[in-house]
Amino acid sequence: MSVGFKEALRRRVGRMLRPGGRAVILLYHRIAEDRSDPYGLCVTPPHFEEHLRVIREVGRPFPLHDLARAMRSGSVPDGAVCITFDDGYVDNLRVAKPLLARGDVPATVFMTTGRAGRDREFWWEELQRAFFEPVELPAGLELTIDGNHRVWRLGSDATYAADDPRRLSAWHVLDEGAPSARHAAFREAYASIRPLAQAERTRVIDTLLAWAGIPVATVRESRRALEPVEVVELASGGLVEIGAHTVNHPALPSQPAEVQREEVARSKADVEAWLGTGVPGFAYPYGLYDDASVAAARDAGFAYACSCDGGPVWRRTEPYLLPRLEVADCDGDRLAELLRWELHGRRPSQQRDGDR
Question: What's the pTM?
Answer without folding.
Answer: 0.90
